[in-house]
Amino acid sequence: xxxxxxxxxxxxxxxxxxxxxxxxxxxxxxxxxxxxxxxxxxxxxxxxxxxxxxxxxxxxxxxxxxxxxxxxxxxxxxxxxxxxxxxxxxxxxxxxxxxxxxxxxxxxxxxxxxxxxxxxxxxxxxxxxxxxxxx
Length: 135
Fold this sequence. Notes:
By secondary structure, the chain is mainly alpha-helical. It has one domain (4-125). Helices cover 75% and strands 0% of the residues. Helix 4 (61-91) packs antiparallel against helix 5 (104-124). The chain is elongated, with a radius of gyration of 17 Å. The chain crosses the membrane at residues 7-27, 62-80, 100-123. Keywords: Membrane, Transmembrane, Transmembrane helix.
C-alpha cells in the first residue's frame, strides 16, 4: 500500500489525472455521447477544479478553504444523485440502462470517491522532505 510520503511525490500527476477525468467527462457530453445532466456537470466541474487547486500551492490556507467549499458542494450533489439511485433500487425501479457504463448511480458513486480522495489529499499534502524521499 502506498504511503502518504510516496503519494506526495505524485501531486502533479494526480492533479493532471483529475483534470483529464473532468475534461474527458465534459467531452462525452459535448460529443453528445451522454445525456445532459446538471448533477454530472457539477461533479465533473468540481473534480477538475480540485485538480487545478492541487497544481497551485495546495498547502496555502486560501486554496484549501476554496477547495473545501467546492468539495462540499460536489459531495452534496453527488450524494443526492447517488441517493436517488438507491431510492430507485429500493422501489424496484432501478435499471442499468442501455449504456450501463454511463449509469448515473454508478458514476455518482465514483464521483463521491474521487472528490473525497482529492480533498483529503489536498489537506494532507505537504512538501516532500529529504527524509520522506529516503523512506
